Amino acid sequence: MYYFLKAMHEDDIPRVQEIERQSFSAPWSANTYRRELSSPATSRYIVARSSPSLPPDEPIMPYVPRRSLLQTLLPSVFTKPQPVSPFPLVGYAGLWLMVDEGHITTIAVAPSQRSQGLGELLLNGLIDQGLDMGATRLTLEVRISNESAQKLYLKYGFEPSGTRVRYYTDNGEDALIMWTDVITEPSYQHRLSELRERLALRLQRQAGMVE
């Protein structure tokens, strides 16, 4: 299977909500997503799509390590109407900018597509969006019990910095707060490049592009 990332648009909201209901106990309303999509200067949402064969004119990311993993996701893409895609939406993710801090709001993957590297691909997309928006550090909250997600975030330089007590309203679970160091620093960019090389190889092998 081939995967690629695009900007989220209003036509994507029903499918995004479907995946969200399968992933979280307190999904957002359609109007909330519409408000988020109306402010691309401070709010970016992306989607992952899949194709059983190499789709024409679509970048399959990431090919090579580079700062801009999402070359198609420039600010103009978030404001111009986009044609309806024939490729299924299989994941999504979002980021807020608060001054120079990027706050990851959500990452979710359709149950049938999990454990394929899609969550990691979406996280890379958000890192690039943060860089494009001028963020110097990234932060997020994750359930204390969600060790698999924490492992991915630690891999990309997010470190625990505290907890939010009873943050999740469905069961009163605490949230672990995690922050990166400065993502524009050469040390972080070098680490990011190495991780993207590994992710690229994994996705290419899964797609049968390399042995």
Automatic annotation (TrEMBL):
<protein>
    <submittedName>
        <fullName>[Ribosomal protein S18]-alanine N-acetyltransferase</fullName>
    </submittedName>
</protein>
<keyword id="KW-0963">Cytoplasm</keyword>
<keyword id="KW-0808">Transferase</keyword>
<dbReference type="InterPro" id="IPR050680">
    <property type="entry name" value="YpeA/RimI_acetyltransf"/>
</dbReference>
<dbReference type="InterPro" id="IPR006464">
    <property type="entry name" value="AcTrfase_RimI/Ard1"/>
</dbReference>
<keyword id="KW-0012">Acyltransferase</keyword>
<dbReference type="Pfam" id="PF00583">
    <property type="entry name" value="Acetyltransf_1"/>
</dbReference>
<dbReference type="InterPro" id="IPR016181">
    <property type="entry name" value="Acyl_CoA_acyltransferase"/>
</dbReference>
<dbReference type="InterPro" id="IPR000182">
    <property type="entry name" value="GNAT_dom"/>
</dbReference>
<feature type="domain" description="N-acetyltransferase">
    <location>
        <begin position="3"/>
        <end position="183"/>
    </location>
</feature>
<comment type="similarity">
    <text>Belongs to the acetyltransferase family. RimI subfamily.</text>
</comment>
